[in-house]
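Need the bound structure for zinc ion, inputs here:
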Amino acid sequence: MATFVSRSAWGARAPKKTSSDFDPSRGGVAVHHTGDVRFAASSHSRCASQVRGIQNHHMDANGWDDIAYTYLVCVHGYVFEGRGVGVRTAANGTNDSNYRYYAVCGLVGGTSASYDTITDQLIDGFRTAIARLRSVGNAAAAITGHKSFLATECPGVLGRHMSAMEPGSGDGGDPTDPTDPPPGVPQWPGVLLHYPPVTTHSSARTWQQRMRDRGWTISVDGAYGEGSRRVCLAFQAEKGLSVDGVVGEKTWYASWNAPITATALRGDRVSEPGAAPNWPGVLFSWPPKTVHPAVRTWQRQMRDLGWDVGVNGAYDQRSREACRAFQKARGLTVDGVVGPATWYAAWYATS
Ligand SMILES: [Zn+2]
Ligand SMILES: [Zn+2]
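Answer from helper R.:
Posting the output first, comments after.
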């Protein structure tokens, strides 16, 4: 099951500019790979920094407006948003192909077969990306290799797997296949609900109603704004999803399929809403000290859990040490910074 990674989630720089001089209904999707070096990361924790590196290279060394690709897919099955839907690409090598084709790049390796790492998750990621480009990005049916436009080895060994990238092919057993939603569950609409800016879409209302039915305090107005995002963050943290505040395919289906009650760490059975205060939207870090009213809230909770922190409203070295130990104990990224995942983990068990 592929997971989309938004630009903010991988730390993208803003594009210098974007062009919508683009008509993929006259072309489709072009497949690329990263060339000439072993590239597939053994651990997914490295993939976001690889994508940032590609963006830096394209913008700073090549002088382009943004990372050239529409999406980038890693061997772990994550789909990183590059230029995204509706934006002209710079990867296909000719004006005509950049005008007519999206560009999706596999983070696999070089032209030597021994460099390429082809995994089922990678192919599934391509399938998911291409399904989205067709459903919301107006892409025509073609799936072709970069080398169909000009002389290049790209996409290397990946070119032999293009027929498997056709949406609907593959094992057919994926419960998140957009053509086959689980019974009683509305099909994921293929639209990412995110904020900012506010996402206004009929599916936002469907999701909000579902979350309200689950007991969350949320406006059902079809506009995914700050309040919706906070509910999303808390829900993702509670359910062990990646905590990015974006309702994508995984979060959408979890909103219907995940069990409704959570076990708070203090041992009470509690319903979902209100068990954790909303993440305040401020990262706590040291040095220098972060001073914020919510720091005290977090410190009190940590103290109640038995961690060695002072409850003083200032995120100091002692708080940071406790945070790092807590993150390590919970299997979170150990960076000593309290962001949304670490915040909610202090109130919710992760399993
Ligand atoms: Zn290419
Ligand atoms: Zn990865």
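Comments: The pocket of zinc ion (ligand 2) is lined by residues 41, 44, 47, 74, 76, 78 (CB under 6 Å). The chain has three domains: 3-165, 199-270, 290-345.
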